[in-house]
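Could you show me just one protein sequence together with its fold in token form as a worked example?
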Amino acid sequence: MAQRNGGQDNALPIDGLSRIAELLRVLKGRLKLGKPLLIISFAIVLAPTVCSAGDAISLDQLVAEALARNPEVNVYSAEIAAAKGERRTAGEWQNPEASTESGAKIVRDYHGNTLGDGILWTLGATQTFEYPGRVTLRKAIANRQIALADLGLEGFRSALSARVRAAAFRAALGKAKAGAADEIAKRFNDLATVLQQRPAAGVAQQADVRIIEASAISLKRRPLEAQREMQSAIHELNQLRGASVNSPLAPPDVDLTLRPLPQVATLLFTARERNYDIRTRMFEFEQQGYKIRLALNERWPAVRVGPFAHNERADTNEYLFGITASLPLPLWNMNTGKIESEKARAAKVEAELTALVREVERKVADAEFVYRSRREEADDLQKSVLPQMREAAETSDRNYRDGAVPLSTYTELQKQYLDSIDAFTAAQAAAIEARQQLEQLTATRLDTKESR
């Protein structure tokens, strides 16, 4: 069972040439409209195929378009800008403070006699100096916040790429499923048409025609459902790439090959090292450590130092110049409450990190088992069951037309062949979904040959 898309060993065959040939035979044999109309009809039928193939874009192009045009990227870019602003604020000095005092001075002796009067004034300026190491700790906390924002953007881009690939895979599976179901439905329609054209030979033949027509009607729902799944995936792709939901988009050619994955131990190690949630918790834990050190540092006060000038004019004219320094005395408040709060938050983050690592490991093991079992199921169906069922369905179709196979056997074989195709596509879809989950957990591409 080969498919025209190269490298897609697990894809279902979709034969469109037989439909075009059938249409040409009908136009030539029944309508008898001549060669010019046949050429025009062939061009009309073939035009959508040619246009869709020419307009189709690759999966990598879809991912690049989604990353460039998705509006949610701006949210994470704004968070990075805000974190960089906080980093700049953390490294800035406090503005100096200026102060002034003015008033009047009266000098009297012990008898109450005025010896002189005048004005007095004081000018001063102070600069706050933080305790050593405090600004460095604030910068370290802000740097970890920038790293968290960068990691958030990286994780979102990875998740967006995975969503685009998942939607493309669903569209490809829906297209393959629709083609296979349409082939079976067309087979029933053609057979019903042939039987209707035969002269009536009794009640049994009429009953056979009605059964086949009813089977054809019920089977028409399957290609419609598959097309709906494909169209739903196309709508999601349009939204992810920032286009209108009803924009025309040909499903991209994707490789549906289910390749072997690395060993579970390798996947677990990669997840612990590269998982975005784990890395986020690790940055938060490091940041919380700096916050504890900052809270310990804030037990000691900042110092305010600056020059001053003072003048008094009464019986004499005096000028005073000097340097002033002030600081709060750490007697009653040693920042104990904040230190305990930051230590408790650090313990919480550490516990969450430990639980998260265990949860990621469990999900990796579960997804790897699902992928491996579903891949084996899809390989068995493709190598043995599907070829046999397809051959049996085609043989029964030829033999029924010759009267060598009863109707019940014919209809059952066609339905079982379609059921086997459904089982194959379901196994493919489950394996691809598990692989996508593994890619999210390990932050690694697993659908390419280089990832092995």
The first strand starts at residue 97 and ends at 108. Confidence is low (pLDDT under 50) at residues 1-54. The domain at 94-129+300-333 is CATH 2.20.200 (Outer membrane efflux proteins (OEP)). Strands lie at 97-108, 114-129, 303-313, 317-326.
